[in-house]
User: Which sequence fits this backbone?
């Protein structure tokens, strides 16, 4: 197995595109090394992208943020402004694993690992994040919700890397939140994850919303019906009931050692309500 | 397949070693450098017994390739005491009997030191959540948390 | 908050009861202490094990030729390298083991009996070559149907694991083999008569899942064998004499040829009382003529070491209106894993032990299943049976409208009670723990929304056993103590303290080490909560021998008869009529004169420590239940337990707190999860969910002291009892919070929510 640590995105893309065998991007390594150890994967080449400056940077970009795909959860949390604008995205990224994991894990890796239970992805989807992709044919953009097509299946072609996430300028009276359900308090893979972002107008009516669910389908979902349950309402008890039902209806979960079908569906509704209430409180103050 | 040559700093001292691509930093510390204070409890980042700092950042060394340590500054349990003077955390762990079998202790000490460097005045809850990635099967965590809070107070000069 | 309740008057000690720093502490906080995987020997090879992917399969053939031919591979072993063993039972910890099963568990013979069962092992110059070599070993398996559930395994047409297993303990013996290895029965009186007198009867079936001790340090050893057959083993173990005995037996070598050194041990809890890797490493080392190091991965630890049983427990208790229990009955079915030997016997013996019941009967079944063979886990068998009993006791209290502490007080076992398992109890502290619980402010604190409180008690017998210790008086008056029980929880400190107490010296003048098997007589392993009790007793005896010898030497110097001197406050003094005639001689003085007065001065104890006494505990748990997700959080916990005498209170508290954490994990989230294919789905700490720091509150403790009259310092073993009460304390607390009594562990969120929803439809849910 070869290891390369290129200093630029173009070099990284070239290495990945040129490799005839299995080539993997090494960001935080918190998923990759586990898969290597259990012989789940036997790549010919590892491309370490941590020496590529643009992938490690958090920049304020046209009123929004551009977060390099190799920024760690811990770095994201420590950024002086990001957390106050997108607390939900930060919460989502920082619920992955432990303090030690957050010291290495990246949102790019979390997304491209292709697990439907990835914590940072519903947070990014709810925030309306766009993935900026670099590949042999140049750069392109794609909403984060379209990147994962199924477990370990990404809408990326050979040689393409997610270089950064663009978070659009956050409108006034807008806030996000992320909650996940796990049996313990930390360390578990999400049984259900839910990211919510909503915008209020001056009268406190919800004018825009995005609701994303993780671990309840073959890929993280952007649940438009759940958003519709909130838009035009004051996010009162009735709206939350509708939201709960819409969230549950969108689930296509599996039974596994982390949760049963029925349980995931129920809890998806509960988390959608609770995350919405947190986002609502934040939006009122934003 | 030629090995990688890695030059790094460990506990302030320059070190060099050879490694294969698949060797972890944990392997290199224990087997190449003879620093066996850092332990392998699971190999998958779920127990924290392999905790070290890399450029000041708390990480699981079992989830880092040895080759990734090139040019970095690594901190392990062996570097925690200064000569014969134990770090306040080490002393408090002893005072509070915050260890029974002791296998998780190096990981906890490295993690707690990283906590207090970032957050000198943590609450009990903050201590517990920061240390959630360090498993202990012997103590039930009670005395560990007390030791960390006591060390924090001492280090603040309280 | 940690408290102590003394019941037999204050006794002033210099060291016992204080909290000095443990002698091995600095090494453990600096990373210097060496555990199983921390030793490397010159020229060592890496050993790895090939394990069965099938839960049940006949092994038709094993072809290791390609593996042996791989460059870098220096040795390969299979079943052919281990002689078969006749059936013979020997004690190990608190259970009996059979060598015929041990040899088969260490290396499969006719069959692979669980996923992960060792089938072959290699030693190579690197881990990657060893892994490659395993892939080259060709095993021809005939896959057989498997059975992993204990009730299924007892059915007549269940897949049979051993075609010669006839149920023991049944008269007349069955004609056909089955998966039921043994039937046990304990009790006295007449339960049929008893239940007829009862005003209220509660009966219920409980189920628990297999759980693992969860020690953070995987099994590890380094073995080396010289050309003349002298073998050395360095390993992490609870009992290195046991390792020596089992390796000698399995390999057919003389006991003296093998020297085992115990490394520091990173947790055991009973799971390191048997051998897994050591015989393999020795066999490989002999073949390869080089040392072989073997370390289990975490996956191997879960798949192929020894979890404890999952079980079903049917409990029936009858009581009068005034709370007096008149009959108690239980039927226990415990999974043994692939070979007989579940802890159903101690489980049966402990089930009703906290109570003085005239009519009691417990029947237990030891059932084999296609799972790893179970090993001891902290009070083996007792958490399961006592969980079931304590839940029913709570239910009875509730139906009688009686305070659960009052109900227990009314029926509590005391000195003189004939225990359900046979003997009359000596002085015990159960009542004292109940009284302390009643007086504790935890019992009276208000509860918040969605919260509930539960209480439960526990009993464990504790053991003594063969123990040797050696105490040398060094030339400068300091002392070197060698004991043979590996230090799992800080016991070295307690040994030093007892020695210092006896000798009247400063604790810093005693250095303690754990001796290897060549340095001491036999030591039974660290288990059964015996280390402080037995090694302590041996240490005291060795110290008293040093004192007697010192007195002899002083008497000689003073030309006095031996009985005319006495030892007091660290010095020998002339006694009686001669008092004051000579200046006292300290141990240091006498040490300096040892050569002149007869030679080195030492004490050497070789005992079979008798008089181990039970330890009772009573715990109070508060939980909060999330009504929409079923998640249970323990928000407050108090563990009250009788230690006899706490030599080092911090380490006694530590045992209480650690047992509580394991018990809470067992109650809420820990379980072995199998697929229909008989394969373990969660062999790792990600999905085998032990409590993390943020899951638990502070664990308050109360040490009750009702001294054990048969130990020089009154010690009772304390290590095992603490894991017993939490299962029912948490279950009873959840019942209090939700109105739903759970009978199946773990009470993981999906199960709790499903039960809550069902109770809501029936209108019986409280939240």
Assistant:
């Amino acid at each position: 197995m070869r290891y390369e640590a290129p200093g630029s995105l173009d070099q990284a893309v070239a290495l990945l595109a040129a490799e005839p065998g299995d080539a993997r991007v090494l960001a935080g390594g918190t998923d990759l090394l586990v898969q290597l150890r259990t012989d789940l994967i036997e790549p010919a080449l590892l491309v370490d992208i941590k020496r590529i400056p643009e992938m490690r940077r958090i920049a304020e970009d046209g009123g929004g943020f551009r977060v390099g795909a190799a920024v760690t959860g811990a770095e994201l949390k420590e950024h002086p402004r990001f957390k106050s604008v997108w607390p939900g995205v930060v919460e989502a990224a920082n619920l992955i694993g432990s303090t030690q994991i957050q010291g290495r894990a990246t949102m790019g890796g979390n997304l491209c690992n292709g697990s439907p239970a990835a914590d940072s992805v519903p947070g990014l989807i709810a925030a309306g994040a766009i993935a900026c992709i670099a590949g042999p044919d140049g750069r392109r953009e794609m909403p984060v919700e379209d990147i994962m097509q199924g477990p370990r299946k990404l809408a990326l072609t050979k040689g393409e890397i997610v270089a950064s996430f663009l978070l659009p300028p956050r409108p006034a009276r807008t806030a996000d939140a992320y909650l996940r359900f796990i049996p313990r308090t930390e360390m578990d893979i999400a049984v259900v994850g839910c990211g919510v972002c909503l915008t209020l107008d001056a009268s406190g009516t919800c004018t825009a919303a995005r609701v994303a669910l993780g671990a309840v389908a073959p890929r993280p979902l952007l649940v438009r019906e759940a958003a519709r349950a909130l838009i035009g309402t004051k996010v009162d008890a009735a709206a939350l009931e509708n939201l709960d039902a819409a969230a549950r209806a969108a689930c296509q979960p599996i039974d596994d050692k982390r949760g049963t079908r029925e349980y995931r569906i129920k809890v998806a509704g509960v988390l959608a309500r609770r995350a919405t209430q947190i986002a609502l409180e934040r939006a009122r103050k934003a | 397949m030629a090995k990688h040559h890695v030059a790094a700093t460990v506990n302030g001292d320059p070190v060099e070693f050879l490694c294969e691509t698949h060797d972890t930093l944990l392997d290199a510390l224990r087997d190449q450098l003879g620093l066996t204070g850092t332990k392998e409890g699971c190999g998958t980042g779920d127990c924290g017994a392999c905790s070290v700092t890399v450029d000041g950042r708390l990480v699981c060394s079992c989830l880092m390739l040895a080759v990734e340590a090139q040019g970095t500054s690594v901190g392990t349990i062996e570097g925690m005491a200064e000569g014969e003077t134990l770090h306040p955390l080490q002393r408090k762990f002893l005072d509070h009997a915050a260890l029974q079998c002791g296998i998780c202790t190096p990981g906890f000490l490295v993690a707690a030191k990283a906590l207090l460097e970032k957050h000198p005045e943590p609450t009990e809850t903050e201590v517990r959540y920061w240390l959630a990635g360090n498993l202990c099967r012997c103590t039930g965590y009670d005395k560990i948390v007390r030791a960390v809070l006591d060390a924090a107070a001492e280090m603040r000069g309280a | 908050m940690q408290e102590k309740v003394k019941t037999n008057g204050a006794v002033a000690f210099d060291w016992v009861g204080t909290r000095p720093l443990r002698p091995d502490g600095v090494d453990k906080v600096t990373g210097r202490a060496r555990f199983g995987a921390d030793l490397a020997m010159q020229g060592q090879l890496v050993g790895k094990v090939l394990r069965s992917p099938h839960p049940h399969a006949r092994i038709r053939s094993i072809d290791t030729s390609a593996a042996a031919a791989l460059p870098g591979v220096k040795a390969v072993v299979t079943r052919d390298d281990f002689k078969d063993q006749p059936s013979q039972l020997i004690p190990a910890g608190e259970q009996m083991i059979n060598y015929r099963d041990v040899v088969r568990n260490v290396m499969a013979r006719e069959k692979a009996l669980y996923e992960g069962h060792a089938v072959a092992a290699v030693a190579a110059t690197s881990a990657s070559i060893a892994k490659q070599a395993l892939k080259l070993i060709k095993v021809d398996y005939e896959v057989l149907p498997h059975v992993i559930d204990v009730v299924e395994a007892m059915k007549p047409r269940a897949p049979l694991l051993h075609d010669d297993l006839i149920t023991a303990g049944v008269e007349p013996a069955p004609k056909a083999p089955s998966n039921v290895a043994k039937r046990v029965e304990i009790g006295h009186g007449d339960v049929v008569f008893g239940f007829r007198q009862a005003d209220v009867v509660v009966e219920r079936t409980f189920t628990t899942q297999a759980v693992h001790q969860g020690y953070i340090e995987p099994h590890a050893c380094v073995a080396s064998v010289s050309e003349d057959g002298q073998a050395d083993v360095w390993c992490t173990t609870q009992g290195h004499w046991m390792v020596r005995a089992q390796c000698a037996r399995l390999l057919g070598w003389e006991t003296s040829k093998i020297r085992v050194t115990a490394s520091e041990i990173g947790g055991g809890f009973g799971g390191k009382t048997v051998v897994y890797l050591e015989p393999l490493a020795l066999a490989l080392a002999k073949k390869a003529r080089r040392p072989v190091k073997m370390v289990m991965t975490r996956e191997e630890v879960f798949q192929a070491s020894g979890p404890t049983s999952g079980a079903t427990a049917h409990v029936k208790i009858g009581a009068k209106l005034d709370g007096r229990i008149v009959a108690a009955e239980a039927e226990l079915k415990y999974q043994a894993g692939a070979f007989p030997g579940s802890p159903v016997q101690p489980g049966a013996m402990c089930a009703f032990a906290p109570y003085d019941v005239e009519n009691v009967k417990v029947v237990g079944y030891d059932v084999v299943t296609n799972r790893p063979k179970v090993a001891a886990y902290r009070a083996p068998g007792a958490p399961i049976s006592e969980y079931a009993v304590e839940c029913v006791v709570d239910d009875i209290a509730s139906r009688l409208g009686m305070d659960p502490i009052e109900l227990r007080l009314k029926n509590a076992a005391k000195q003189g009670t004939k225990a359900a398992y046979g003997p009359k109890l000596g002085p015990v502290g159960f009542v004292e723990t109940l009284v302390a619980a009643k007086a504790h402010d935890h019992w009276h604190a208000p509860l918040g929304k969605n919260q509930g409180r539960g209480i439960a008690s526990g009993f464990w017998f504790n053991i003594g056993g063969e123990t040797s210790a050696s105490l040398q008086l060094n030339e400068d008056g300091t002392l070197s103590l060698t004991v043979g029980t590996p230090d799992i929880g800080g016991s070295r400190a307690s040994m030093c303290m007892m020695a210092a107490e006896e000798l009247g010296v400063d604790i810093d003048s005693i250095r303690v080490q754990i001796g290897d098997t060549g340095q001491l007589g036999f030591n039974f392993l660290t288990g059964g909560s015996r280390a402080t009790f037995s090694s302590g007793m041996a240490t005291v005896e060795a110290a008293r021998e040093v004192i007697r010898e010192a007195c002899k030497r002083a008497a000689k110097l003073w030309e006095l008869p031996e009985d005319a001197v006495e030892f007091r406050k660290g010095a020998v003094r002339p006694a009686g009529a001669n008092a004051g005639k000579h200046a006292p001689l300290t141990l240091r003085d006498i040490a300096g004169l040892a050569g002149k007065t007869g030679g080195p001065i030492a004490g050497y104890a070789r005992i079979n420590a008798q008089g181990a006494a039970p330890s009772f505990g009573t715990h109070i748990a508060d939980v909060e239940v999330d009504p929409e997700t079923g998640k249970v959080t323990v928000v407050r916990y108090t563990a009250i337990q009788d230690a006899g005498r706490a030599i080092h209170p911090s380490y006694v508290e530590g045992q209480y707190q650690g047992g509580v954490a394991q018990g809470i994990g067992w109650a809420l989230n820990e379980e072995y999860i199998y697929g229909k294919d008989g394969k373990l789905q969660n062999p790792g700490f990600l999905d085998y969910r032990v409590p993390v720091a943020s899951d638990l509150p502070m664990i308050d403790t109360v040490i009750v002291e009702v001294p054990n009259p048969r130990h020089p310092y009154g010690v009772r073993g304390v290590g095992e009892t603490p894991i017993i009460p939490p299962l029912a304390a948490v279950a009873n607390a959840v019942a209090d919070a939700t109105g739903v009594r759970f009978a199946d562990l773990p009470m993981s969120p999906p199960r709790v929510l499903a039960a809550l929803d069902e109770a809501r439809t029936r209108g019986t849910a409280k939240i």
In short: The first helix of chain C runs from residue 25 to 30. The radius of gyration of chain C is 27 Å. The longest strand of chain C covers residues 325-337.
